[in-house]
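[Discussion] Sanity-checking designs against the backbone

I'm trying to build intuition for which residues belong where. Below is a structure token string of 131 positions. I'd appreciate it if someone posts a full sequence so I can compare it with mine line by line.
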């Protein structure tokens, strides 16, 4: 398992970025795990990535007709077909966690587990939960 990974965000992937694809490929070939936020999909076509990160807010904000759920489900399926890890961020309660697990995402981030905290507090919480 890797302790760190590179996450390519929308602000870091605006086209055209001179040499971005070559840089990402070089990092991947050097063994750096790479992640991608959904707003950076053009890079998926040209880059080898390990992880796709989805924002659950995509589904939870005004998805009355269920389109967001279907789109997110398709993105999870696509990532799994491409042998990528899937991280869903923004999970705030048990109902959302159950939904994300049913969808098949492998990793989850959000207030459902803990709010952002200083490293010392995180390490204490981590050690406590290892038992």
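Best answer:
Here's mine. Compare freely.
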């Amino acid at each position: 398992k890797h302790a760190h990974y590179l996450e390519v965000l929308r602000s870091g992937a605006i086209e055209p970025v001179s040499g971005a694809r070559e840089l990402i490929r070089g990092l991947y070939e050097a063994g750096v795990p790479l992640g991608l936020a959904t707003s950076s999909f053009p890079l998926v076509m040209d880059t080898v990535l390990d992880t796709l990160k989805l924002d659950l807010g995509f589904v939870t904000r005004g998805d009355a007709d269920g389109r967001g759920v279907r789109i997110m489900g398709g993105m999870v399926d696509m990532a799994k077909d491409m042998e990528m890890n899937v991280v869903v961020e923004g999970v705030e309660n048990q109902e959302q966690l159950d939904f994300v697990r049913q969808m098949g995402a492998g990793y989850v981030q959000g207030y459902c587990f803990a709010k952002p905290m200083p490293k010392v507090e995180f390490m204490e919480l981590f050690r406590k939960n290892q038992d």
